[in-house]
TrEMBL record:
Keywords: Oxidoreductase. Pfam families: TPP_enzyme_C. This is 2-oxoacid:ferredoxin oxidoreductase subunit beta. Signal peptide: none annotated. It comes from Fusibacter bizertensis. InterPro entries: 2-oxoacid:Fd_oxidoreductase, THDP-binding, TPP_enzyme_TPP-bd. It comes from the Bacteria.
Amino acid sequence: MNHPLVEGYFRMEKFPHIWCPGCGHGIIMASIARSIEKLGLDKDKVCIVSGIGCSSRAPGYMDFNTLHTTHGRALAFATGVKLANPELEVIVIAGDGDLSAIGGNHLIHAARRNIGLTTICFNNNIYGMTGGQYSPTTPTNEKGTTAPYGNIDKPFDITQLAMGAGATYAAKTTVYHVNQMDKLIESAISHKGFSLVEAISICPTYYGRKNKKGSVVDMMNWLKDSFVDHKVAEKLPPEKKEGKFLMGEFINKIEPEYTEQYDKIIEQLKK
Ligand SMILES: Cc1ncc(C[n+]2csc(CCOP(=O)(O)OP(=O)(O)O)c2C)c(N)n1
Ligand code: SF4
């Protein structure tokens, strides 16, 4: 593994990683490292924060300032880090369970405040680490260990949820669409307020097996065939859009950023 990206941005002594063969999470982790390199960020000015889950193991392998916190609380810790040192580029890594179940309240409030955090959701539609329980993004009728006869809940669309709560940057991509993922993560990190990239990942071990999704290659091909950029979709005839999921950049707008507003109050009080 003597690639400059690997040696420059990863803690070699922490490998081999814990992920199963074919897990999509490593693809997203590598995309984050490539985006940081492309932006030329100083490693010492980057802080990567996670909760608990297979996805949340990523910061352990990444050679930056890193925090592996508690399940669902990554955004709360990250908010503290950003307020204490707004100069830091704070990136949050969270699974769909972490971010939209136990941590759902932190997500909506971080988005509402427009605090300058970049959140990358590793969405594999299931709780991977604890053995395949269904999560708030498990599609209706799909199976998990806690939904052996099919999930009757309606799933969250995390990108839409963040937008509804006030996120000023929100985008969705998949582990098949890696070039797009690199660009979206770069834009999200460069964005001043709260940004979210929902990266659709694959968990062949639990989600794939429980729902008979076939091999890892089959799961990747499904992503390739099922997702279309929403700008491309606008120009497609209705029959070509049927059954497709939309991805791409959905919102990118500038609004006052939380830590800047907070610092303004401190300055006013000093006068
Ligand atoms: C407070 C608390 N509740 C529950 C758990 C158990 N737990 C650990 S990881 C996890 C779910 C992980 O799923 P997700 O966030 O989707 O990430 P993935 O493992 O799929 O990447 C759960 C429920 C915990 N560690 N702490
Ligand atoms: S259980 Fe699923 S999410 Fe966890 S490492 Fe294995 S494939 Fe990846």
